[in-house]
Amino acid sequence: MKKIIMLCMTISLLACGGSKTVRTSKKVIKGNWNLSSITYSKAGTYNVTLLNDENKDCFENSTWQFIPNNNTGIYTINGVGCSSGERHFIFTIDEVDETTGLYDFLLKPTDAKGKSDTNRGFRLRLAALSDTSMQWKQTVSVDGSPFVITMNFTKL
Question: Where is the signal peptide (predicted)?
Fold first, then answer.
């Protein structure tokens, strides 16, 4: 009887955890990153405000810290003419397709204590993740057609 109870407890604990792929991704994402470049899927000059915060020039070379054990992070903007400083957020990685390795990445701004004053969040696609680089893609609509913003990170 004890063995059956232990087996049931073990199965229930394993069922509650994320998939192995998501757990591995959280280990890789942990640490400090530099948002090295931002590109658009269409040529031209665009006035894009990322994450309802700042423009592309302010976000490039920003530093990001991810703390996966409590799904929090901080990004810091230090550009000339930008509203410099730290921004806090919480994040989740939701598995979309384990065979392709593609995920939805949800980032939600918070205050320094981890509380959000709105239900605002930003869904991005975690398009690539390795020990040294990461790529996010966000698809928005411009004049009724898809417009993809690609954010490339390098690990510090």
Answer: 1-17
